[in-house]
Amino acid sequence: MCCQSCWRSLWRWKNPIIVILLPLLLLPLALVGDSKVSKGAYAVIIMGTFWVLEVMPIAVTSLIPIFLFPFLGIMPARDVCFNYAEDTIMLFIGSLIVAVAVEKWNLHRRIALRALTLVGPEPRWLLLGIMAPCWFLSMWMSNTATTAMMMPILNAILKQMKKVTLLDIRERNDPGEDDNEVEITIEVDGIPMEEKPLRNNQNNQDENKSRNRADEERDFNELAKIFALSTAYAANAGGIATLTGTPPNIILKGHIDKFYGRYNLDPGLTFASWMIFGLPISIVLFMITWVWLQFWYLRKRFLCCMKDTRSYEAVKKHLKMEYTSLGCMTFAEGIVAACFLVLAVLWITRDPQFIHGWGVLFPKGFVKDSTPAILISVIMFILPAYPPPWFRCCGTKNVKVAKLTENKSFIVTKKGSDPFTRDGFTPLLTWKVVNDEMAWGIVLLMGGGFALADGCSKSGLSDWISTKLDVLGTLSPWVVALVLALVVAAATNIASNSATATLFLPIVADLAVRLQINPMYLMIPVAVSASFAYLLPVGTPPNAIVFASGYIQIKDMVKIGSVLNVLAVLILVLMSCTLAATAYGLDSFPLAFRKQVNTTVTASIIEPIISLNNSHIGYNITQR
């Protein structure tokens, strides 16, 4: 008992023990000679372990390079700190601020309820109605916020469906006739012969009722599992569609921009060009998830497309009532929706690659995707949340305004009944709201990841690890991409997707150069597969949210998600080798990268190759 008590006490103190002992135990690695490689390995192991085990907040771990790299002599503090204010991070901050505005004024709830009122009340179409708004909203705002918003709506839907199920059981068990007596007519040679009424055994009836009730309860529980998982899986699929949809995509852009920037190359990766690849794969994953979840729920009935005979009109009526309770779109919702649409258009039209966008109006490199993101974010602190007096006097008597209650829900009132409609100015966003809702931890995580990648490169650690993986050079490029995607997809189920992408991307970039493969050919599958967390609640916050609802168990998530995990990786690699290769010109290997590999070339024949997207010119070098 004493040993068991000591063990429990140590377990409670495991986080500070790891924080203190791990750096001390690994200290000889940092003191071995003057090798920057070993010092870089020392920093990576410490940060990687802290991130995976979460012995301290992930954001706090991300600050370690600021003091550790200068102490180890890997990089000066000035260079390390530059990584925490990258253009990519500003893009992410801008998108988060817009998402905060959407969430503050309940625009996302209106979109979700509207989608649900447009689909049929049957479970098959309700499942699609739940997944569609989660998928769409997660392209533009946090997957976590999207899932958290949908769960109360999902609970209300399931509550109504359970009432329908109980009513259906009651109608089947008590059809309004006397079940104790059943008239049986027997025909012999076509002549009916009446028998005396036969009394059923009361115990058998009770047993049948109990069995029906148990079957329906089991059926409802399965349906609840599918509905709950659909919100998380749809949010994960939607985040892949845009650069700002999920942190691994933003981290990928940051790494690619830095890696290609060392060689003065333009990778051609913009918000618009990413959607050429990200949106199709997101749609395919969305549809496969919808079909697979139906198949899991219906099993054999799915093959016959058997329709549910129960009437779910009560569910549809409830959803319409919920949507109606929102009232007309408020002034603030309209302004936020307009800003949201303007930002999306600016992102898509800045540099569409196939035509000239508005970015050509400025000197090359002056405007990036972060420019419109921060512009719209700043404007939201200026635009009014309620119509000004002169606007209300100009025939807008029916304008509705929203009032935020203590429980963060909104009630819609007419003009004049809300104290906030006074002549005073109220902006759409205030710094207090943004500061409270902003995911600062992810911002620091991205900065720490960029700093770690920079440290790995400058210490030579990435190159040293890639040399150990030269054995992969005997495989075809698509096989290498498949192997790496499977490894990352497995790792992201037990660690943060952002941390997983941060640790793998710099190593994969150097590995691709050594194997003479375009770095984006391997980096894109690695980054996207970091979003394939279908198996465990710890893989991603949406999974944790639906798991906390109580509808599912870990074994359910593993059984249902394992098939999706494998299918998602296979589809990703297939589309990366076809669609992404065409969109980004991944079939060519730029001269700048080839020079890094062939440093001892004495004579060569140089043949120019223009990549498919005309973003850079590469060369084939044949050594004599």
From TrEMBL:
Membrane-spanning intervals of the chain: 17-33, 40-68, 88-105, 271-293, 326-348, 469-488, 560-586
Segments for region (Disordered): 195-216
Bias (Basic and acidic residues): 206-216
Tagged with keyword Transmembrane helix: yes
Membrane-protein topology: Multi-pass membrane protein
Any single Gene Ontology cellular-component annotation: plasma membrane
Cellular compartment(s): Membrane
Major location (coarse): membrane
GO molecular function, one term: succinate transmembrane transporter activity
Keywords: Membrane, Transmembrane, Transmembrane helix, Transport
Top-level taxon in the UniProt lineage: Eukaryota
Keyword Disulfide bond among UniProt keywords: no
InterPro entries: Na/sul_symport_CS (IPR031312), SLC13A/DASS (IPR001898)
Family statement: Belongs to the SLC13A/DASS transporter (TC 2.A.47) family. NADC subfamily.
Protein known as: Uncharacterized protein
Species annotation: Potamilus streckersoni
